[in-house]
Structure formats: structure tokens, C-alpha cells
Amino acid sequence: MLFWFRSAERISKQENLRAVQNFMRVSYIAWWGTLLGLFLLASSVGNAQFTRDDWGRADEATVRLSPSTFLTLPSSVRTELERRECTIPQPYGERCKR
């Protein structure tokens, strides 16, 4: 009976060692996969930078309305905005009448 217990203990140690080795192998693969993913993400973000021309085209495409368009705006605020020659940018695709 004692012999059986010792061989079972030895098998259990071997199984534990295999489990640890498998865990280390998976952890190693996961670590390298994460590192590769971060590298690819960083390189793709670097290519997605906007140029001055992009910002200029977006600025030209922005619809801006004069303060007098907004009838619910208090007259003192409307007058001050018009004095400063301010315009109010509208969200893209906004087609509502003010």
C-alpha cells in the first residue's frame, strides 16, 4: 500500500510539473502576442494622423450660422456675438431650421 502511495505521489508531481510547463508556454505565447498586438496598434495609429490639408478641408466644410438665425437666443447675447463677428458651427448633417 505504501508503494502505491509513493508512485501516485510521483505521478501527481509529474502532472503538476506538466501543468506548470503548459501554463508557462501559454503565458509566453500570450506575452508575445500582446507585444505584437501593441506594436501593430502603435504602427497603425501613426499612419492615421491628420494633415493640415485634412483640417483645412474639414474647416471649409463646416456649416456656420450667424447668431441672428437663433431666435430663442437672448438679444443681449445675440448682439454681443454679432459685435464680435462670431458664427455658430453646426453638427455634421444638421438640416433643422432654426
List the helices and strands and how they pair.
Elements: H1 2-47, H2 52-61, E1 64-65, H3 75-83, E2 88-89
Antiparallel strand pairs: 1-2
Explained architecture:
The chain is mostly helical and 98 residues long. It has two domains: 1-49; 52-98, no CATH class. Helices cover 66% and strands 4% of the residues. The chain is built from three helices and two strands. The protein has helices at residues 2-47, 52-61, 75-83; strands at residues 64-65, 88-89. The protein has a two-stranded antiparallel sheet with strand order 1-2. The radius of gyration is 34 Å and the shape is elongated. The N and C termini lie far apart (92 Å).
